């Protein structure tokens, strides 16, 4: 059934198709709960101190503004991550800025955190019916100088804290100039220290501890991953989300759109994300859970994320190519125990 919808959607510009999909998901939530949500088997996990009904989540970026939380929740996800949201609204980069590479099951995007800002997101969330686990992913505005980035993250954290089950600190988008510099050295240490102090203060104030996850890029070598993992352990980060989109171009050599600027996502980056997850799992030594994301397009690909060391998974691009049935397929595949020995790497 999704094949039909997909050919109609793929006839449209990717951003138009995206807006149309969100609108129709919002209107058909109860039907989707019957068609899709009901088919997702229970597969409970406790991660970051939270109880997930199943380990399959929606990755950030699909619903940046929290417009469709009820409609997406009806698809049966074990958790939803909305955002990236920035303190102030911003338009993002000029269009076109999203490209489909269907031959590789991939997308390239250079959206650049187009979003309505934190306040609009919070207003929308006030009316939600979805009561499942909600992560809110925060970022910095493009106009905020990098040396003031912490101000944006701290302000956003404070505002979203009461509405979030966990908050993700996105320092790995390739489409905001300089953002990835926050993943290393002094800048990372200082940002994490500020955020953890704010989290503690907010937890005392609210009487509720909201875990902090950090989302990382796949374009890091083993040494950089090790150093970053050490910083995460020292700071007491609650989870790591690996990975964001890649600036490299695995599996799309020669494709006419491969040279478009932006981050590549989807099936052709799965193995790369799995390598990063495995390296982080080794470096974190079980102290911090990993949420694995990047190229999941089947139950088998979801199992490979757990085999690499993830405790939960998320998906975005696979949904565009495979449709909402992918959620149940992955949740079913992840019900069986996964051990590194019997899993494939992709
Ligand atoms: C169009 C698009 C927009 C995205 N926007 C965000 C974002 O705002 N924040 C974020 O943390 N990740 C964003 N991502 C990255 C995804 O959350 C995910 O990490 C990445 O796409 C790899 O997973 P996938 O192969 O399942 O898509 C975006 C991805 C795509 C394709």
UniProtKB/TrEMBL annotation:
<feature type="binding site">
    <location>
        <begin position="316"/>
        <end position="317"/>
    </location>
    <ligand>
        <name>FMN</name>
    </ligand>
</feature>
<dbReference type="InterPro" id="IPR012135">
    <property type="entry name" value="Dihydroorotate_DH_1_2"/>
</dbReference>
<feature type="binding site">
    <location>
        <position position="175"/>
    </location>
    <ligand>
        <name>substrate</name>
    </ligand>
</feature>
<comment type="similarity">
    <text>Belongs to the dihydroorotate dehydrogenase family. Type 2 subfamily.</text>
</comment>
<comment type="subunit">
    <text>Monomer.</text>
</comment>
<keyword id="KW-0560">Oxidoreductase</keyword>
<dbReference type="GO" id="GO:0106430">
    <property type="term" value="F:dihydroorotate dehydrogenase (quinone) activity"/>
</dbReference>
<feature type="domain" description="Dihydroorotate dehydrogenase catalytic">
    <location>
        <begin position="46"/>
        <end position="335"/>
    </location>
</feature>
<feature type="binding site">
    <location>
        <begin position="244"/>
        <end position="245"/>
    </location>
    <ligand>
        <name>substrate</name>
    </ligand>
</feature>
<keyword id="KW-0472">Membrane</keyword>
<feature type="binding site">
    <location>
        <position position="295"/>
    </location>
    <ligand>
        <name>FMN</name>
    </ligand>
</feature>
<keyword id="KW-1003">Cell membrane</keyword>
<dbReference type="InterPro" id="IPR005719">
    <property type="entry name" value="Dihydroorotate_DH_2"/>
</dbReference>
<dbReference type="InterPro" id="IPR013785">
    <property type="entry name" value="Aldolase_TIM"/>
</dbReference>
<keyword id="KW-0285">Flavoprotein</keyword>
<comment type="pathway">
    <text>Pyrimidine metabolism; UMP biosynthesis via de novo pathway; orotate from (S)-dihydroorotate (quinone route): step 1/1.</text>
</comment>
<feature type="binding site">
    <location>
        <position position="215"/>
    </location>
    <ligand>
        <name>FMN</name>
    </ligand>
</feature>
<dbReference type="InterPro" id="IPR005720">
    <property type="entry name" value="Dihydroorotate_DH_cat"/>
</dbReference>
<feature type="binding site">
    <location>
        <position position="266"/>
    </location>
    <ligand>
        <name>FMN</name>
    </ligand>
</feature>
<feature type="active site" description="Nucleophile">
    <location>
        <position position="173"/>
    </location>
</feature>
<protein>
    <recommendedName>
        <fullName>Dihydroorotate dehydrogenase (quinone)</fullName>
        <ecNumber>1.3.5.2</ecNumber>
    </recommendedName>
</protein>
<feature type="binding site">
    <location>
        <position position="170"/>
    </location>
    <ligand>
        <name>FMN</name>
    </ligand>
</feature>
<feature type="binding site">
    <location>
        <position position="84"/>
    </location>
    <ligand>
        <name>FMN</name>
    </ligand>
</feature>
<dbReference type="InterPro" id="IPR050074">
    <property type="entry name" value="DHO_dehydrogenase"/>
</dbReference>
<feature type="binding site">
    <location>
        <position position="137"/>
    </location>
    <ligand>
        <name>FMN</name>
    </ligand>
</feature>
<dbReference type="Pfam" id="PF01180">
    <property type="entry name" value="DHO_dh"/>
</dbReference>
<keyword id="KW-0665">Pyrimidine biosynthesis</keyword>
<feature type="binding site">
    <location>
        <position position="64"/>
    </location>
    <ligand>
        <name>substrate</name>
    </ligand>
</feature>
<feature type="binding site">
    <location>
        <begin position="60"/>
        <end position="64"/>
    </location>
    <ligand>
        <name>FMN</name>
    </ligand>
</feature>
<feature type="binding site">
    <location>
        <begin position="109"/>
        <end position="113"/>
    </location>
    <ligand>
        <name>substrate</name>
    </ligand>
</feature>
<feature type="binding site">
    <location>
        <position position="243"/>
    </location>
    <ligand>
        <name>FMN</name>
    </ligand>
</feature>
<keyword id="KW-0288">FMN</keyword>
<comment type="function">
    <text>Catalyzes the conversion of dihydroorotate to orotate with quinone as electron acceptor.</text>
</comment>
<dbReference type="InterPro" id="IPR001295">
    <property type="entry name" value="Dihydroorotate_DH_CS"/>
</dbReference>
<feature type="binding site">
    <location>
        <position position="170"/>
    </location>
    <ligand>
        <name>substrate</name>
    </ligand>
</feature>
């Amino acid at each position: 059934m999704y094949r039909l919808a997909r050919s109609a959607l793929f006839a449209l510009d990717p951003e138009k198709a995206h807006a149309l999909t969100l609108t129709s998901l919002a209107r058909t939530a109860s039907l989707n709960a019957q068609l899709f949500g009901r088919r997702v088997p229970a597969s409970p996990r406790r991660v970051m101190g939270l109880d997930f009904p199943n380990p399959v989540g929606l990755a950030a970026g699909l619903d940046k503004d929290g417009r469709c939380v009820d409609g997406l929740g009806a698809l049966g996800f074990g958790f939803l991550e909305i955002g990236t949201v920035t303190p102030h609204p911003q338009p993002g980069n000029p269009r076109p800025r999203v490209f489909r590479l269907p031959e590789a099951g991939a997308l390239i995007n250079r959206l650049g955190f187009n979003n309505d800002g934190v306040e609009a997101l919070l207003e929308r969330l006030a009316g939600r019916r979805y009561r499942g686990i909600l992560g809110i992913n925060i970022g910095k505005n493009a106009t905020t100088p990098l040396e003031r980035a912490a101000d944006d993250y701290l302000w956003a954290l404070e505002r979203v804290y009461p509405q979030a089950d966990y908050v993700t600190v996105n320092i790995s988008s390739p489409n905001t100039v300089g953002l990835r510099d926050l993943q290393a050295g002094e800048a990372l240490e200082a940002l994490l220290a500020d955020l953890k102090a704010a989290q503690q203060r907010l937890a005392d104030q609210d009487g509720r501890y909201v875990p902090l996850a950090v989302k990382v890029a796949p374009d890091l070598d083993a040494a950089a991953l090790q150093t970053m993992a050490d910083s995460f352990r020292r700071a007491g980060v609650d989870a790591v989300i690996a990975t964001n989109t890649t600036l490299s171009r695995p599996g799309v050599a020669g494709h006419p759109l491969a040279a478009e600027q932006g981050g590549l996502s989807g099936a052709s980056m799965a193995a790369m994300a799995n390598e990063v997850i495995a390296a982080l799992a080794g470096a974190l030594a079980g102290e911090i859970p990993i949420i694995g994301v990047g190229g999941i397009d089947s139950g088998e690909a979801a199992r490979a994320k757990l085999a690499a060391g993830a405790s939960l998974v998320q998906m975005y691009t696979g949904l565009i190519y495979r449709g909402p049935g992918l959620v149940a397929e992955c949740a079913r595949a992840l019900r069986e125990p996964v051990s590194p020995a019997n899993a494939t790497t992709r």
